[in-house]
Amino acid sequence: MNRRFEINPRTGFMFVLGPNILTQLTYVIVLPVFFIIYCVVYNPFNIQEYYDSAQKGFGFNIIMVTCIMLATIAITRTAFSLIIRKFELSRFQYLSWCLFEVFAASAFIALYTVLMRQSQDSFLTVLETCMTFCYMILIHPYVFIYMLRTILSKNEEITERDAPKDNSLVRFYDEHKRLKLTIAPSSILYVRSELNYVVVYYIDAGKVKEFQIRCSMKSIEDSVDKHCLCRCQRSYFVNPDHVTVLRKDKEGFIYAELNIPDLPPIPVGKTYFNSLSAEL
Question: How do residues 142-173 score in pLDDT, each as one tens digit?
């Protein structure tokens, strides 16, 4: 689930580490494949007899059921990947999403089963049966993938912790102490707080980009201070190397103009004016 980026200190180029799309594709592929193999080999809950009594027989129906499951999980995982780009989910919220995902697959499979079996059973009765099939079978790959990802994540944390640190780079961590961004100080323009997030504005290949991290300004203060970024207002840190001038408007408010065209000026609090001007 983690999205991590590293920016080369010389070029400012951004690399994507552990792309989220690969993680979601794992679920889309592994869950249906495990389901069909498990059903064919072990016949759990007499699923073979259940679908053999329907039109076309067990072989055709299990393939259709697996295709329905694959399509449903592909849709839910696409939606999930879009959600986690904007929000950090807790473990409980992720578990709830997985339960919803299996329920959605069960509902579509139940609809197909009602049409194929043409029995007197109600949709709710068939849905209950399909939920038993899906939840009890898919719990195995869900647990396996989760445990594998946990192990890989812990191994990554140990590797990161034991690796020699390049103190020339600024490291940004989220509220769970997970590394999210590594960047050269010279690439940073300014950092702004936004509700429960901080937004890092930086230069990459000559373009201004931004990266949002769920953490507080206080949690990054020591790191950015060490790399000569200056606090210019309660909600802002600015890189003095990119400040061209400090100006005061008619109302007496102070702003820092940056050396990047079309960027808005950065507000400067009177408390921080002297310390920032001393760095220019």
Answer: 999 989 888 887 777 676 666 555 567 888 88
User: Three-state SS for 230?
Assistant: strand
**This prediction's pTM:** 0.60
Number of neighbouring beta carbons within 10 Å of residue 231: 20
The one-letter amino acid code at 121 reads: D
Tokens of 212: 């949002």
Return the pLDDT at 11.
Answer: 38
Distance CA 155, CA 187 (A): 29
Which tokens hold the place of 198? 């901080």
Secondary structure letter of residue 164 according to DSSP: P
Phi, psi of 87 (to 5 degrees): -130, 145
SS3 10: coil
Burial category of 238 from C-beta neighbours within 10 Å (exposed 0-12, middle 13-18, buried 19 and up): buried
Instruction: Tell me the per-residue pLDDT of 14-25, one tens digit each, with 9 for 90 and over.
Output: 333 334 677 889
